[in-house]
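It is worth pausing here to work through a concrete case rather than discussing structure prediction in the abstract. The textbook approach is simple: state the sequence, then state the predicted structure, then interpret. We follow exactly that order.
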Amino acid sequence: MKLLEQTRQVCRTKHYSPRTEDSYIRWIERFLRFHRDTAGQWIHPRDMSAEHVEAFLTHLAARCRVAASTQNQALNALVFLFRDAIQKALGEFDAVRAKRPLRLPTVLSRDEVRRVLSAMEPGSVHGLMAKLLYGSGLRLMECCTLRVMDVDLDRGQIMIRSGKGDKDRVTMLPVGLREPLSAQIERVARRHAIAVDRGRGWVSVPASVEHKRPSAPKELGWQFLFPSRNCVRDPDSGRWQTWYTHPSTLSRAVKQAAADADLRKRVTCHTFRHSFATHLPEAGYDIRTVQELLGHKDVQTTMIYTHVLQQPGMGVISPLDAERFGAI
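Step two, the predicted structure:
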């Protein structure tokens, strides 16, 4: 079995997500090509040592100047390759590490959020998704991969399944989005019924679910809430499956809306999540509640938003304004 095929199989055995699998494969390929170019020939990882990993990571930091998170992703891929795929002990190694800067998140004011959302195409799916990002604090992929069954209109909540860290959580469903989401579910149901009549209508579900209930891939509850217009062929089963809206399409729509709203800030889909997490404490909600809604493992991760609230100028009178306010 070829190395990359073996690595993919181990990824699937450990139930890694397709995105993680593809990321690991890309880094392993880049690692192998780097040493081929250095040595003038291909070298199998079994014939490598910790020094080879050190050289590649140092190359990424010193020559490619990648971000710390990018270098860590490469490191995780190589650790997986040696530890899990070929089961070779590397031992300790020391490489030049990219410096991880401390950055405060970009946050929109409530008025700026309204301006961006108003600039989205009225009644569009992307507009509804953007409102969910802000109104429920969802990550981009969490929003794109929502299933029909994840929306509980009666209880007013959204279930996030297999979120970051493969964790489930529950978050709020904004009252103002109940009717639009209900209409979206009806659209998905009509589309799904047509697909089933045409001999299609399958959707990707966790392997454990399909094993227990083979009919699950065709059930309405498992259909993606925001499906893509095009079907994709599953490489394993050969079936044409409905897939979710690609995250890049929503990212482009949000970027365009921010430009149309004439915002000078850099606005991404994740900016809505940052704004959600900042506006809740401003409204008086405690940090633990915000932590649970965001799905943070450590409250210290959530505390970054309190730093945004405590930026100079929030409660301090500038010396330039002191005379105006009678402070001097």
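Step three, interpretation. The domain at 103-314 is CATH 1.10.443.10 (hpI Integrase; Chain A). The longest strand covers residues 227-233.
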